[in-house]
Amino acid sequence: MFGDFFNKVKGLLPAKKEEKKTEISNVANAFFDRLLSWANQHGISELYYDARFKCERGLPRDKQKLLVLRDVDLSRFGITELPRELFLLGLITSLSVKDNKLQILPRETSNLKNLRFLDASYNAISELPPEICYLTHLHTIIFRFNQLMFVPQDIGNLENLIILDLGNNHIKILPPEMFKATTIKKLFLYENEIAELSQYIGQLEDLEELNLANNFIPKIPKSIKQLKKLTKLNIQNNELSSLPKEIGELESLLEFEAGNSIINVKNINRIMHLPSEIGALKNLQNLNLCDNILLDLPDEIGALRSLSNLNLANNQLEALPRSISNLENLKSLDISNNKLKNLPHEITELKLLRLDISGNPELSLTQEQQEWLSTIQIVRDNTAK
């Protein structure tokens, strides 16, 4: 009796398998049809090489090619929404949807378990979906020029994150948990509404570039000294009145922007004095302190032997320290629009290529300095004597 039953079941199995295959095939076809229909409706072209942007854009119409697609570039198509079917292409490692009209990024983005690169810049996205914080292979997230209000704290779970660009949004607060992503090397938070830089910034010990320009930050935390690998620091157009002495411990720093853009008047730095410890920045090549209210410079400024460009324009300087002559690699010096009355005699030892002394109406030059100036590409006005 039982033998007859099992024989009947056994006889049905092949038919069941075939039915299952047919069912799967029908589902797959429907999936592809919906995705390609969406692509056609939104004017998304067949996959092609865009020589202008040096990348492949669009979606292939061949189903086999879709299945193995790894790099997807749907930028600049005017897209207002993304279909869920797109996020079932599980082999995608790079996704660019920048320069569209997206207001949300679907939560189904979390299905892209192999995703490493995500660029959704230049859209109108108001929320970074928390689900992407569990895509453990992500190493680059770019959401600049959107409408983000906050950073999800779980972004700190991304143990392979290297580049995080959230510039030009409306972010006000940085959650402490985000700084657990200690693998970050480039952090861009410019043009936001950040009013405080967390002391936990010091946890990002692999950080190489930090851009905080155009925020409302009143001070730099002492923990900045832990960023021993930092090479570029931009804190222009904030609300700084001073720099911490710990800034001198950024031993790898090459570029330091702490000035202001005269175009931007909503938030400006008003630094009056520099800490003497700034002289410890032995590798510094570019230093911009323009449009502050500097009253003087420490003698230690002369220890910046690697300095190539120094911008001190639009400050309140009445004199320069004699030690400035020690800047043996200095090529460009801008001291325009200050209150200088004379220059140190030793300044003629500098091998400058460009010097701007305009806007110092009481500046008086010695004969030797005038002869020295004849060898330089100089910007000056007729008020200098």
Q: How does the SSE layout of this entry go?
A:
Elements: H1 2-41, E1 48-50, E2 55-57, H2 63-67, E3 71-73, E4 94-96, E5 117-119, E6 140-142, E7 163-165, E8 186-188, E9 209-211, E10 232-234, E11 255-257, E12 286-288, E13 309-311, E14 332-334, E15 354-356, H3 367-373, E16 377-379
Parallel strand pairs: 3-4, 4-5, 5-6, 6-7, 7-8, 8-9, 9-10, 10-11, 11-12, 12-13, 13-14, 14-15, 15-16
Antiparallel strand pairs: 1-2
Overview in brief:
The chain has helices at 2-41, 63-67, 367-373; strands at residues 48-50, 55-57, 71-73, 94-96, 117-119, 140-142, 163-165, 186-188, 209-211, 232-234, 255-257, 286-288, 309-311, 332-334, 354-356, 377-379. The chain is α/β, with parallel strands linked by helices and 385 residues long.
CATH top level label: Alpha Beta
Query: What is the H-and-E element order?
Result: HEEHEEEEEEEEEEEEEHE
Main sheet?
A: 14 strands, parallel
**Rg from Cα:** 29 Å
Q: The CATH topology, please?
A: Leucine-rich repeat, LRR (right-handed beta-alpha superhelix)
Estimate the helix proportion, in percent: 10-25%
Strand order of the largest sheet: 3-4-5-6-7-8-9-10-11-12-13-14-15-16
Q: Based on helices, strands and strand pairing, what is the structural class?
A: alpha/beta
Please indicate the count of domains.
1
Low-confidence stretches: 1-24
Mean pLDDT value? 90
Q: Count of DSSP helices?
A: 3
State the total count of DSSP E strands: 16
Strand content: 5-15%
CATH superfamily: Ribonuclease Inhibitor
- What spatial form do the alpha-carbon principal axes imply? elongated
The CATH architecture category equals Alpha-Beta Horseshoe
